[in-house]
Amino acid sequence: MEFPRLYMARQNFPDRRVADIPGTVQKELAGAGFGANLKPGARVAIGVGSRGIANIATIARAVVDYWKSKGMSPFIFPAMGSHGAATAEGQADVLAHYGIIEGTMGCPVISSLEVVSLGKTADGIEAFMDRNAYEADGAMLLGRVKWHTDFAGKIESGLFKMMAIGLGKFAGAQRYHTYAYKLGLENVIRAVGRQVLASGKILGGLAILEDAHHNTGQLTAVPVVSMEQREEELLALVKSWQGHIPVPAVDILILDEIGKNISGAGMDTKVVNRSVTGLTNCWPNTPIIERVFVRDISNVSYGNGVGLGMADVISDRLLHKIDWKPTRINSLTASTPAAIRTPVHFLTDRECLEPMMPTVGKLDMSEVTFCRIRNTMELSRALVSENLLPVIKANPLCEVIEGPLPFEFDAEGNLTEVFRKAEDLVHH
Length: 428
What we know:
Oligomer: single chain
CATH topology of the largest domain: Rossmann fold
CATH class of the largest domain: Alpha Beta
Structural class: alpha/beta
Number of strands: 15
């Protein structure tokens, strides 16, 4: 089949990056006055999650330094539910790959799946908390506030979700997602989060907001007394910064990679307009995408292939890189088996694309539109087919920076590389 020429488009999202991350962390925490009643030498547990958050090691180290400056004894623990194949070693390894180890943090990193029961919510949901965090004199959370890939609400992914599913480890994560099947995940997150706050063990949270370039756009210390309201406000703010692909509709979206470091669902559902339950084009105010082709999996996903089920076609190389143990644990714990269904797959990129072109409702293949991005977290650059050029030129955020370019395959029939890999951007 003939493929169209391509143009590289750049989306000029506002650059909201925080210039001095350590200084901003110190200022925010000092202003919030967390742990005012703690005595010198008190043990402070700092919860860090598994997402590929920009500058996470720098942010974590700044939090450790703050507590040290107050005469406390901080330590870091993983707050990541069932991730890392639901093992203590696996979760410590996730943090280590983000540069969060004792040597770089200047404090111990303590990983365990042991939990303590915090009693039951009004709905009868038993809440759990990491034992090491519970037995410390106080705990605080470092969490990115953003939209969730499974649902829409006023609180989605952030400090409350981290208090529930992150602090609850595997035992909590499995139970909460089971309740969420009937009650809705937002309701469960709020109820369990309130139960965790009622324990008196939480000192506060540091909310991390990222701009559409995946820069650290804002760092906000969130006190316990206003955490629920502040998180609603911060989510509304960061949703207003959200990036999308640069066209309102496309026939075939090519993703160079998926991965847990990119999104909890492997690919951001609110970019690809898919649901982890198998629905297509289900999110309002999101570009319509007819077919999704995924070429590879990020090395920093460590074989976790969650999200492949939302693709229409994948490459054999992606399929062969999947480690099914963490993939199954993660997906089934979240009650989303559709997210790991195996799509149709072929050996080469050309073989993946050609059968998809006639499936988008167009008889003339020259009318099929294409958009290619590195992954759903990096949206500032996109390759688009020539037939989308008028749409790009009409988009005030966009400019064409290169083209026309050939729709180029190498000798093996695979697309030539045009983007850096996501792991190059993790260790900012």
